[in-house]
Each structure stands twice: as C-alpha cells, then as structure tokens.
Amino acid sequence: MTTFELPLKGMPCGTQQFEYHLGMDFFREMESTDVLSAAVDATVEVKRSGDIYELCITVDGELGIPCDRCLEEMSHRVEAEYRVSVKYGEEYSDDADNVIVIAESSNTMDVAGLIFDTIMLTIPIKHVHPEGGCDASMQAQLEAHRATIAEEDAEGVGEEDGAGAAPTSENSNNDDFPCDPRWEALRKLKDNN
Asked: Among candidates 48, 22, 18, 54, which has minimal Cα distance to 35?
C-alpha cells in the first residue's frame, strides 16, 4: 500500500511534490462504498516557508459510481484542487477554514483523508446517466411504476375520506365534507377563544 505520510519536519524550505495513482485499493482502504472503479492521479505540492506548510492537492481522473436512477455504473470525471495551510501546535485541530494544526510531536502528516475528501466532494448529490444512458430493463421497470403511481393519483387514492387534509375556507362550513377529527378539535378551540 502506498504511504500518504508527508515528512513535514524533515522537509527543507521550498517546494516539494508528491504524486499518487489511486485505484480501487485506495477507495477500499478508505471504506468507500460509493466508488465502483477508479483511476485518479493525485498530486500534493508542499511549499514550506518557515513553520508554515502550504499544501495544494490536485486530483484528476475518472471514477465509476452508481447511477441514482438505474444503479448501473456510470463514469464521473474528477478534476479538483484544494489548498490548505498546515502548522504545528499543541494538539491536532482542523476547526479553522483552510488551516490544519498538527501536534508538535508529529514528524509526518497523513494526507490520505484530504485527498479522499477532495475527490469525493466532486461527486454531485444527484448523479444520473445522461438521458437515454440508463440500463434499458431498469428504465422499463421505472416507467411501469411511474405509470401506476400516476394512475393512482388521478383516481384520488387516499383522498376519499379527506384524512390529513386541512379544511379550507371554502369547505370549512360544508357539511358534505368529512373532516379529520384533529382539525375539528382545533376548530373548536379556535371558536372558544
């Protein structure tokens, strides 16, 4: 397994670059179930100026992730950059935006989590194949269920007794409109005040 430990304390002033090729082993190690296949290159550039280390993490490549619609694998382009400053302090802290404090006793810093987060933040909340790209059999199943739901809505399933519906001003005095007992109790409270 590739080591993601950067030797910060032993690093000379100036800029150094570390390169990684990330496949499925990396994502399994990070316990990610959202990634089905991976080929991502990551570069960590470290610029040391005295006691401050400026990290620039760049990721570029492709991930295979499940489509939210058909659950089949789809390709997702990964291209991102993340910058963070690292300095030594009493204990580890990442409370501040773009500043990480690591314990004075640490000689190295593990950047695997930062690389992983940079990659995973490129995945949109909703990820689906382009129109027509989904698995045909799953798409047919979805269409069949969509038609059933639309037909039930058109027939008014669940609305025949008015349960859960708040009375409107038009129908609040209509004796033909069956009212949910909870709304009736609220109406009585209102009328008493």
From this structure: 22
